[in-house]
From TrEMBL:
Gene3D superfamilies: 1.20.1050.10, Glutaredoxin. It holds the Pfam family GST_N. The keyword Transferase applies. This is Glutathione S-transferase family protein. GO terms for molecular function: transferase activity. It comes from the Bacteria. It comes from Acanthopleuribacter pedis. Residues 1-80 form the GST N-terminal domain. Keywords: Transferase.
Length: 210
């Protein structure tokens, strides 16, 4: 059975949402990275970077949320969650998936790292204006793209919608300004999907490295 190792709410939500959209059976095992669980030898053997999410599928172990998303869509999607190879939609799919993790997410992650994720001695103050500047620019470009669109890519829900919606939820919790009613409506449509509401209901069991 597929095993997702992560913790809610973190980037493992993205993978869990995709597993739910694909209706795949999986086990969700929780690790508490704030308590240092992701630095145990057993966990580092799965991801030497000490980060979640990690997915196991048979002998395959894979990390990086975007890579996991693509693996699941390619392997189990059967045409769902990812546009067809060789189409303009597929090109934009990659563009926006990478945009989500490299442009939209990065200012949020910078703020989080310097608030709690980095060792205290490495954290620096005063990053707020740069974080806001970078996030606003990335958000405005996204908001322009979303005008008149139901989904991020073409006429269908895809992994990109998962990543963008998750990251916008993170931005909201981080107190970013997002004054664009059509983006709020988009997030409302995506989070109304049955697969999204099932995430919260799933029982989880802790990761046992033994
Ligand atoms: N680029 C990675 C980032 C993974 C990541 O940073 N995960 C966080 C939780 S959302 C984590 O494990 N942090 C622990 C740490 O930084 O030590 C991905 O998208 O999977």
């Amino acid at each position: 059975m597929i095993e997702l190792i992560g913790l809610n709410p973190t980037r493992s939500n993205r993978v869990q949402w995709i597993l739910e959209e694909l209706d795949l059976p999986y086990r969700f095992r929780q690790v508490n990275f704030k308590a240092g669980d992701t630095h145990s030898p057993a966990f580092l053997a799965l991801n030497p970077n000490g980060k979640i999410p990690v997915l196991r599928d048979g002998d395959l172990v894979i990390y990086e949320s975007a890579a996991i998303a693509n693996y699941l869509a390619e392997t189990y999607g059967d045409g769902r969650l990812m546009p067809a190879l060789g189409t303009p939609e597929r090109a934009h799919y990659h563009q926006w998936l990478i945009y989500a993790v490299s442009e939209l997410e990065q200012p949020l992650w910078t703020a989080a790292k310097h608030k709690f994720a980095l060792p205290e001695a490495l954290r620096v103050d005063g990053l707020k204006p740069a974080v806001k500047f970078e996030f606003d620019r990335a958000f405005n470009i996204l908001a322009d793209w979303l005008k008149g669109r139901e989904f991020m890519i073409g006429q269908n829900f895809s992994c990109v919608d998962v990543f963008i919606t998750h990251t916008l939820g993170w931005a909201q919790k981080a107190g970013m300004d997002m004054d664009a009613p059509h983006v709020a409506e988009y997030v409302g449509r995506m989070t109304a999907r049955p697969a999204f509401s099932r995430i919260a209901q799933k029982e989880s069991e802790p990761f046992n490295p033994a």
